[in-house]
């Protein structure tokens, strides 16, 4: 209370200078104390390494991990200081994982550390590798400029231009890093992809913009009902045969006055010395007499040399055969000269834009030259607005000047203004500012001493939209960025909820959930058709759809993420329900269904997950246990040691051993027990589900045993009891989910310095009832999302 009174007294005008000095001194002292505390912590860690940790590593590790013949090629004698360990942080993170699960040193080693010694080693490494001071400025990391991946490219084209076209389907596949295909470090730009970008830009511009040239106008075919005949003319479907002199009359209905082209597809059967003569009249006036030499096998299109000027209304077109000829003594196929007309078309009005232009054309071209508006003026207006949306930020006149000049040059060379805009759009669509998400464009002018910077509001809008929609920002996000409001917590919270309910969030389900849960891999799986005859393509799609609908429900209804583990409901259509043994669901539509909680709950018991974690011919407790450790517990096991035999090989002479017995034998192999002691019980707990997720109580004649005991002593007798145990580990699940979603959101792998942000996100969203939107909002408010560390490319 006294401090508050002192500050209030000092805040009076006569004490203002003194107050500033006091606060300046306080900040200096606080920073000095913080720096000093950090130095003390590091010095203490160094001494502890020399006195405690280094002797333990020498005692228990160096016998196997020294020199050129070190076990698994891992030589540890070179790590003699704390600094040498931190230089190879990633390698030691993997080593610590093995120490943690007691696979290093292996149980068959001559000397094993005591529990106290192992705890001391792990505690020291935890502090050294992850001990970050979260009280001061925290490194938000730096994301490599990110190329749009295939999904993002397609979605961005859809929202930028409004065309129903997915050119990225023909692009090379995107590489995956840290489990996702939107990671900047792996999204390279090979020459083949650049060629695809150029081709796609041309196709997109032609689909989006009506070129306003003769070739861009669609042909209108005169319908059969508009024709009548006179003389020796036979009307058939899509053709008319002139077997002697005769006339075919048709009606052209012109809805807009202007210039029109006329085209007649025709052929002849030859006889005599002349070709068939086809006379064309319009409203009784002769237009042209064509010499038709094409054969019926290869008809030719005959077009008038000049467009016709036609007023609005109906016009009578007459096509006549003038020179019938018959020679009964001629060659068999050249005795009778006849004329054949296949279709009659017209197009126009040429040089005048149609009144029914597609919406995406008028959305882009908001200015056309004429009435005092020059080509340059309109080109700048059109291309500025388009470029700002394509580049996802404001642009300067200098930036778009080359594009405007390109449009001008195209028009001056004899093309239409619309063709010029097509070329301008192509230039924008192959620009790095469209193809890549480049941040920090204007940072060069800022102080180079400030290495941690807030990203701009437009960059926040872009990060948010590609995070939740895999696409560009919409008008609302652009407007909020323009107003400078996107870094406000309340604004971000409102936008997150809006965006999660928007239909475009379907991309988040497909791209985040599809990769987090490995649902994309389901497409490539083919269970043994001899054992699982019921499995087919439709059922596979239903399995994936169930998990997507389940994820979407939790997301859009803002449910607790703990329901991913324990939900007593799912989504089924009739076909999937019958597969599960439920005859109450009818129809193709997916609907919410209550589960029998004695058998199933949450994600783990859904057929998609159970199939993904099985082998083609049988279940795989190892894969299922590994999936649970990675996805639910957030404790992925390390990679298996080299030269470990397959499960069946480890069974030795016990050829008819059950899967549980084979796994028990496998755990006796040196180096395997530590991981399998954790994975196997988790996987065996779900043995009541076969390799495609059906419930079973027996395998052949053997009764299924789904009981088990975890390394911590907790035991269970059924899948549901195991799920209840996993639910108790919800904090670990929430942290794991936070790490995965943050990785996807910022497009880079999680680093040790992200610990502070992950701790804060997890703590805050779990305190808010584990709500899905709270998790997304906390990520959007985090330092890694709203800030960036300047890198070498800024200089």
Automatic annotation (TrEMBL):
Annotated ranges, domain DUF1595: 378-439
Manganese found in the keyword field: no
Signal peptide boundaries: 1-37
Domain DUF1587: residue ranges: 146-209
InterPro entries (UniProt xref): CBM60_xylan-bd, Cyt_c_Planctomycete-type, DUF1585, DUF1587, DUF1588, DUF1592, DUF1595
Domain DUF1588 span(s) in chain numbering: 600-699
Protein name (Swiss-Prot/TrEMBL): Cytochrome c domain-containing protein
Organism listed in the record: Gimesia aquarii
């Amino acid at each position: 209370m006294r401090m508050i009174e002192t500050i209030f007294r000092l805040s009076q005008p006569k004490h203002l200078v003194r107050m500033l000095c006091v606060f300046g001194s306080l900040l200096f002292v606080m920073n000095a104390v913080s720096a000093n505390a950090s130095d003390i912590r590091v010095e203490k860690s160094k001494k502890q390494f020399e006195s405690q940790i280094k002797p333990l590593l020498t005692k228990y590790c160096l016998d196997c991990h020294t020199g050129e013949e070190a076990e698994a090629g891992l030589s540890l004698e070179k790590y003699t200081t704390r600094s040498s360990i931190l230089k190879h942080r990633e390698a030691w993170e993997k080593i610590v994982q093995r120490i943690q699960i007691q696979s290093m040193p292996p149980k068959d080693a001559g000397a094993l550390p005591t529990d106290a010694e192992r705890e001391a080693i792990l505690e020291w490494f935890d502090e050294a590798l992850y001990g970050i001071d979260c009280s001061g400025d925290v490194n938000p990391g730096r994301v490599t400029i990110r190329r749009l991946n295939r999904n993002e490219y397609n979605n961005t084209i859809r929202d930028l231009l409004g065309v129903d076209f997915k050119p990225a389907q023909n692009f090379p596949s995107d590489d995956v890093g840290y489990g996702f295909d939107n990671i900047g470090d792996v999204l390279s730009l090979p020459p083949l992809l650049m060629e695809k970008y150029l081709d796609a830009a041309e196709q997109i511009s032609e689909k989006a913009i009506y070129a306003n040239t003769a070739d861009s106008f669609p042909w209108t075919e005169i319908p059969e009902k508009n024709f009548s005949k006179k003389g020796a003319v036979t009307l058939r479907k899509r053709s008319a045969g002139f077997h002697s002199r005769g006339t075919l009359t048709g009606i052209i209905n012109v809805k807009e006055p202007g210039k029109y082209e006329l085209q007649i597809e025709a052929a002849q059967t030859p006889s005599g010395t002349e070709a068939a003569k086809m006379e064309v009249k319009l409203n009784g006036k002769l237009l042209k007499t064509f010499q038709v030499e094409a054969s019926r096998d290869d008809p030719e299109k005959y077009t008038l040399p000049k467009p016709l000027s036609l007023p609005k209304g109906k016009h009578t077109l007459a096509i006549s055969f003038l020179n019938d000829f018959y020679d009964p003594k001629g060659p068999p196929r050249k005795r009778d000269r006849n004329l054949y007309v296949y279709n009659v078309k017209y197009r126009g009005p040429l040089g005048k834009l149609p009144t029914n232009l597609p919406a995406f054309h008028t959305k882009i071209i908001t200015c056309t030259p004429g009435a005092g508006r020059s080509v340059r003026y309109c080109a700048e207006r059109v291309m500025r607005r388009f470029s700002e949306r394509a580049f996802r930020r404001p642009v300067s006149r200098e930036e778009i000047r080359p594009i405007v000049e390109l449009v001008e040059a195209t028009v001056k060379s004899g093309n239409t203004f619309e063709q010029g805009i097509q070329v301008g759009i192509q230039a924008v669509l192959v620009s790095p500012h469209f193809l890549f998400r480049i941040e920090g464009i204007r940072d060069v002018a800022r102080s180079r001493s400030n290495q941690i910077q807030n990203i701009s509001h437009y960059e926040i809008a872009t990060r948010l939209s590609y995070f939740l929609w895999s696409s560009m920002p919409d008008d609302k996000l652009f407007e909020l960025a323009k107003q400078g409001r996107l870094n406000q917590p309340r604004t971000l919270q409102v936008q997150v909820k809006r965006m999660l309910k928007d239909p475009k969030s379907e991309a988040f389900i497909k791209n985040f959930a599809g990769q987090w849960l490995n649902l994309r891999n389901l497409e490539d799986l083919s269970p043994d058709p001899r054992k699982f005859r019921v499995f087919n393509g439709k059922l596979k799609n239903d399995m994936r759809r169930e998990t997507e609908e389940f994820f979407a429900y939790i997301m859009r209804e803002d449910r607790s993420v703990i329901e991913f583990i324990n939900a007593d409901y799912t989504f089924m259509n009739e076909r999937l329900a019958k597969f599960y043994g439920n005859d109450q669901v009818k129809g193709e539509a997916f609907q919410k269904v209550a589960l029998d909680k004695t058998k199933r709950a949450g994600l783990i018991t859904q057929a998609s997950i159970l199939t993904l974690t099985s082998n083609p011919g049988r279940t795989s407790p190892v894969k299922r246990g590994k999936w649970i450790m990675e996805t639910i517990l957030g404790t992925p096991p390390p990679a298996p040691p080299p030269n470990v035999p397959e499960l069946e090989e480890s069974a030795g002479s016990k050829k008819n051993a059950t899967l549980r017995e084979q796994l028990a034998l496998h755990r006796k192999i040196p180096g395997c027990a530590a991981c399998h002691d954790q994975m196997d019980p988790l996987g065996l707990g779900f043995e009541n589900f076969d390799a495609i997720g059906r419930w079973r109580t027996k395998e052949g004649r053997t009764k299924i045993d789904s009981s088990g005991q975890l390394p911590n002593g907790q035991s269970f007798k059924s899948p549901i009891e195991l799920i209840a145990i996993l639910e108790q580990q919800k904090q670990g699940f929430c942290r794991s989910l936070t790490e995965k979603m943050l990785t996807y959101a910022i497009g880079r792998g999680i680093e040790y310095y992200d610990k502070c942000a992950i701790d804060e996100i997890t703590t805050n969203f779990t305190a808010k009832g584990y709500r899905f939107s709270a998790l997304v909002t906390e990520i959007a408010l985090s330092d890694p999302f709203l800030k960036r560390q300047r890198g070498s490319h800024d200089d």
